[in-house]
Write a structure and sequence with these properties.
Strand order of the largest sheet of chain A: 8-9-10-11-16-15-14-13
CATH topology of the largest domain in chain B: Rna Polymerase Sigma Factor, Chain: A
Radius of gyration of chain A: 24 Å
CATH architecture of the largest domain in chain B: Orthogonal Bundle
Number of domains of chain A: 1
Helix content of chain A: 25-40%
Oligomer: heterodimer
CATH class of the largest domain in chain B: Mainly Alpha
Distance between the termini of chain A: 65 Å
Number of strands of chain B: 0
Largest sheet of chain B: none
Shape of chain A: extended
Strand content of chain B: under 5%
Largest interface: A-B, 72 and 81 residues
Helix content of chain B: over 70%
Order of helices and strands of chain A: HHHHHEEEEEHHHHEHEHEHEEEEEEEEH
């Protein structure tokens, strides 16, 4: 009787050993009969044709035929897309101010260039010292105090003689853009009122102690959006993005605070994919205000600082609460532990290198000013700095300073020669991208890295 | 075109099931899983990547698929999650159903490692490569995931 009772009690009780759980799970999953649809091949080929037609870019071969339209994960809910648009618009609104901070930081840095700064510099031997805090002497001597990752010897850079402003020939920024309440928190803290504070921290940062100047000096200068390529369907949920996890912090490879800026973001448009493209494209309505040409000369920017643009708010029309991250203007560089955190901080899923090449790991993940993702990949000897930002932004001020420059599809390759590529920049889907190699690589490698951003 | 078709069919035959199941483990929705499979294969064909071997190729595909699934989950975050398809009445042992449901109820970051570990029989290093996380992170996630499963299945007693 007692045994019977026990049996009843035990019936239905889970008793499988943990080592069997895998087999049980597999058995259950297999029972789902997840047959691949018979027309999957046709759907894929048709989708490929669509994607190629829409991208029309490098690294793809347009298959013959395949004109049939097939839904390819295109219509993702618009929450993120709307948010991305608003963020981009808001960023455009303060572009002049951010540019001003940037230029002022450059100026401050130049004055303080005696101080040490965290910079990646050629180490002994073949590679680079990934992390080193090396006192930099006057910017005009020794190593030109440029970006963190620098070409290792063989790739010679032309150091532009002009100051930071000149390289950026007439940068156009969206003039007035409506700011939806859901991004106010994020943008409000970056209003001009708060910028002087951030700028005032630049001297410390120039000594390698604060992230502020680094971000200021490397903060992307937004340009006008290329044509508002918003679309409701991208190449689908495209790309794998959240691919890496890394530890930010001590192993920071990148630093900046460059006294010399010249840049020319490559521009062309393609592949507005949902994770970065759609959501970051600026719709016509958000760019409807008068455009303003901003010369990033120090004087001009100082004037801009003195006359900050009043913040505009429109009435709430989007119930979307927006990103939870509130941008802290006193700490413009936010270090993250995992790339999975990027959407929360940036408000959209930026494109990332995916998968991270074998032997490489993510050594740091940062978001600068809440708008530029900066991820450093390293294999122990070499490092690759990847940056992306919504909108057409100048993400690497070395652009335009190399002797060798070649356009390859959407990619602009720069370096000492075709075998010594140090920088790749491109825009796609309303976002800007840059990839800097501390040790110059050949064109195929550079393109492979850039092509791995999905 | 024939080459593309052949390549697609081969890849589908080789990896289609793994991708579908991985997508299912994230999305719990057959149509979405098919979309992820489709998009993953498009990426595969576009990439023109040279793989070292089949494992490398599979890992790449699973990485892309996993990321697509995560994107999809995020885009769907305001719509509420999918309820896993019930396995009742399919002639599966109840314990298998219990494990499946317990895995499905895990948070995403645990579910993905458990799926790869249990279903794909992937090693910690392989999971690390696929998900782009450090091996120590994967070990930690696996440990916590199994502890959570144990709590659900053993301590609290799976109901069936």
């Amino acid at each position: 009787m007692k045994d019977e009772k026990m049996e009843v009690e035990n019936r239905g009780m889970f008793s499988a050993a943990p080592e069997d759980w895998g087999a049980l799970y597999s058995q259950a999953l297999d029972s789902l009969e997840m047959d691949i649809p018979l027309d999957m091949t046709d759907r894929i080929l048709a989708g490929l044709g669509d994607a190629e037609q829409e991208n029309g870019e490098f690294l793809s071969e347009v298959p013959a035929g395949s004109t049939e339209k097939t839904p390819v994960l295109r219509d993702l809910p618009g929450g993120l897309a709307r948010r991305g648009k608003v963020i981009t618009a808001a960023f455009g609104k303060y572009a002049a101010s951010i540019a001003a901070c940037f230029v002022l930081a450059v100026g401050v840095f130049t004055m303080n260039s005696e101080a040490g700064q965290q910079i990646l510099r050629p180490g002994s031997g073949d590679g680079m010292s990934l992390t080193s805090e090396i006192p930099v002497k006057a910017a005009s001597e020794a190593v030109p105090a440029d970006r963190g990752i620098r070409p290792a010897g063989s790739s010679e850079r032309k150091i532009p003689e002009q100051d930071s402003a000149d390289g950026n020939s007439d940068v156009t920024v969206p003039g007035e853009a409506s700011v939806k309440p859901d991004t106010v928190d994020r943008t409000e803290t970056a209003t001009p009122q708060s910028e002087p504070k951030a700028v005032s921290e630049a001297p410390d940062a120039a000594q390698g102690n604060s992230d502020a100047a680094e971000a200021l000096s490397d903060a992307p200068v937004p340009l006008a959006q290329p044509g508002g390529t918003a679309r409701t369907g991208g190449t689908g949920a495209s790309s794998g993005n959240t691919s890496s996890d890394g530890t930010a912090g001590t192993g920071r490879v990148i630093s900046s605070a460059p006294p010399v800026q010249s840049s020319a973001g490559s521009s062309s448009e393609s592949d507005p994919s949902p994770e970065s493209g759609d959501i970051s494209s600026v719709s016509p309505e958000t760019e409807s205000g008068p455009s303003e040409e901003v010369r990033t000369g120090i004087q001009d920017e100082r004037e801009n600082l003195q006359t900050p643009e009043p913040q505009q708010q429109t009435e709430a029309s989007d119930p979307d609460p927006g990103p939870s991250y509130v941008f802290d203007s006193t700490r413009p560089v936010k270090e993250l532990d995992e790339t999975d955190q990027l959407p929360e901080v940036m408000g959209y899923q930026p494109k990332l290198v995916s998968p991270v090449p074998e032997g490489w790991t993510v050594s740091s993940i940062e978001v600068i000013w809440g708008i530029t993702a900066q991820i450093t990949y390293t294999n122990g000897d070499d490092a690759v700095l990847y940056r992306t930002s919504a909108g057409a932004s100048i993400l690497n001020s070395e652009s335009g300073s190399y002797e060798y420059r070649k356009q390859h599809g959407i990619y602009t390759l720069e370096g000492g020669s075709e075998d010594q590529i140090s920088l790749v920049t491109w825009t796609a889907g309303g976002s800007s991208f840059s990839m800097t190699f501390n040790k110059p690589v050949g064109e195929p490698q550079a393109l492979e890295w850039a092509g791995s951003v999905v | 075109m024939d080459t593309q078709r052949r390549k697609t069919e081969e890849a589908l035959q080789r990896y289609g099931k793994a991708i579908m199941h991985l997508a299912w483990s994230y999305l719990h929705n057959r149509a979405d899983a098919e979309d992820v499979l489709q998009e993953t294969m498009i990426r595969y064909l576009q990439s023109r990547k040279t793989f070292e071997d089949e494992n490398h190729e599979k890992a790449w595909l699973l990485t892309v698929a996993a990321n697509l699934c995560k994107n999809m989950l995020r885009s769907r975050s305001h719509e509420g999650g999918e309820i896993p398809e019930s396995l009742e009445g399919k002639g599966i042992p109840e314990e298998a159903i219990a494990v499946y449901e317990a895995v499905c109820s895990l948070p995403e970051k645990y579910r993905e490692v458990i799926h790869l570990f249990y279903y794909e029989d992937a090693s910690v290093a392989e999971i690390s490569g696929i998900l782009g996380k450090k091996e120590s992170t994967i070990r930690s996630l696996l440990k916590r995931a199994r502890a959570m499963l144990e709590k659900m299945l053993v301590d609290e007693g799976a109901a069936f």
